[in-house]
Amino acid sequence: MEKWTASYLFTEVNGKPVCLVCMQHVSVFKEYNIRRHCETQHGEKYDSLQGQLRQEKINELLVGLKKQQSVFTRSREVSDAAVKSSYIIANEIALASKSYYEGEFIKTCMLKAAELVCPEKRQAFANISLTRNTIAERISELSTDLDSQLKHKVKSFLAFSVAIDENTDNTDVAQLAIFIRGVDDTLAVTEEFLELVPMMDTTTAEDIFSSLVCALDRVGVDWSRAVSLATDGAPSMILKKAGVVTKFREKVQAANGGDAFWTFHCILHQEASCCKSLKMDHVIEVVVRTVNFIRARGLNHRQFDCLLSDNKITHGLPYHTEVRWLSRGAVLKRFFELRAEIGQFMETKGKPVMELQSLEWLQDLAFMVDITEHLNNLNKMLQGRKKVVTQYYDSIHAFKLKLTLWETQQGLSFKVRNCACTPSRA
Predict the structure, then answer these.
(1) What is the mean pLDDT of the chain?
(2) 157-265, what's its fold?
(3) 174 pairs with which residues across the strands?
(4) How confident is the model at residue 402 (pLDDT cuts 50, 70, 90)?
(5) CB 382 within 8 A of CB 392
(6) Which sequence spans correspond to the domains of the chain?
(7) Burial of residue 98 (number of CB atoms within 10 Å: 0-12, 13-18, 19+)
(8) Mean pLDDT to the nearest integer, 74-100
(9) Which residues contact 22 (CB under 8 A, 6 or more apart)?
(10) For 106-133, what is the mean pLDDT?
(11) Helix or strand or coil: residue 188?
């Protein structure tokens, strides 16, 4: 090729002969074609250049070619970086459950910041496409890629378990959430959200089971490797004769030859049942009624906040939501801390809370504050990804040992009743 460069002003770029003068490619890599191009297109101008002058001109043309190639390379790198940035931002928008329009707002913020921090890089930020349609397309592509990766990963599972939860969204559409967790031959655990299936019509056991089977078949699971199913404990899930659990077990055992199959429900929320079994309705009923009187009416809420502000108290009184039972601990704790202000406010409204004058009732309230706080802490320990059942068992077993310890310390109930209405924080 060096001979052809000196004789015909040609060089090789990506396996193709390129003229240094006009940058045209020659279709056939043969000396006859290269010589013909040089003689007919540039012979009149460059044939007179010989010896040192010709070599200097060739070097000049080679330098120009390298500069042009570097420009294209930098442009391609900038373009690749802009596309990658667009995907990263789209992923963050999806994870934060933000609107697709947020991409344009983010771009505006980035451009204004770039003008102050790095004005020379402003164009690089401007090249990032974050329009609503682009964000929607990026998220769709990311979802498709994740689904493809999951289908590939499922094939390597030696064993897998499934968890399902059926609930109703704010448009009254039942949504079936399906999760899958599997382990491969390297003992690497994969836990992924499989699919959210809208149940537009009925939500019978047969409907849920059919949707579950379709979702698992879509990713190509090996049914003989299923080992367990966890549900939310609804009747349609756990009925012995026609529940989802029964149907699922029959399908799995038909595939694995009758091997053992485990089922669980409410594995993370047994503490909720314990909390309800305390038989402390005489405390909860008073607290909920009082909180609702203050929070349900705008005037009462504003006046109570003014009372707290006058006493230099910055935190207010939260709502209690029965569905989200963890709020019970927060409400009880805040009610206990603000019991003096609540009693004063209810007196001014002509609805005194007589229980606040009872030492025995306040002791029961203090006990409820303590035990619900411990239960909430346990629940938080049981939350999160990448956990296995042994970790749940350790947390629950440790909590049971703590209960035994508190009970043996002269009796937990006696201790609370002698604590002058102050939570023990055992």
Answers:
(1) 78
(2) Nucleotidyltransferase; domain 5 (3.30.420)
(3) 168, 199
(4) confident
(5) yes
(6) 1-48, 53-154, 157-265, 274-417
(7) middle
(8) 80
(9) 41, 42
(10) 88
(11) coil
d(CA 289, CA 316): 16
For 294-311, the DSSP string reads HHSSHHHHHHHHHHHHHT
At what angle are helices 389-408 and 359-382 packed, to 10 degrees? 160
Q: How many angstroms separate the CA atoms of 7 and 94, rounded? A: 59
Alpha helices (H) along 96-234: 102-117, 122-126, 132-154, 205-218
Answer for the pair 303, 345: CB distance below 8 angstroms, yes or no.
yes
> DSSP assignment of 213-244, as one string?
HHHHHHTT--GGGEEEEEE---HHHH-TTTSH
Give one word for 325, left, alpha or beta, with left for phi > 0 and alpha for psi -120 to 50: alpha
Please list the residues that pair with 181 across neighbouring strands.
Answer: 161, 191
- Predicted local confidence at residue 416, as pLDDT: 47
The pLDDT of residue 105: 92
Q: Which residues contact 185 (CB under 8 A, 6 or more apart)?
A: 156, 158
293: tokens are 């009187």
Name the strands in the sheet holding 174-183, side by side, starting at the edge strand that comes first in the sequence. Answer: 189-199, 174-183, 159-168, 226-231, 262-265
pLDDT of residue 270: 52
- If one counts every other C-beta atom within 10 angstroms of the C-beta of residue 141, the result is 12
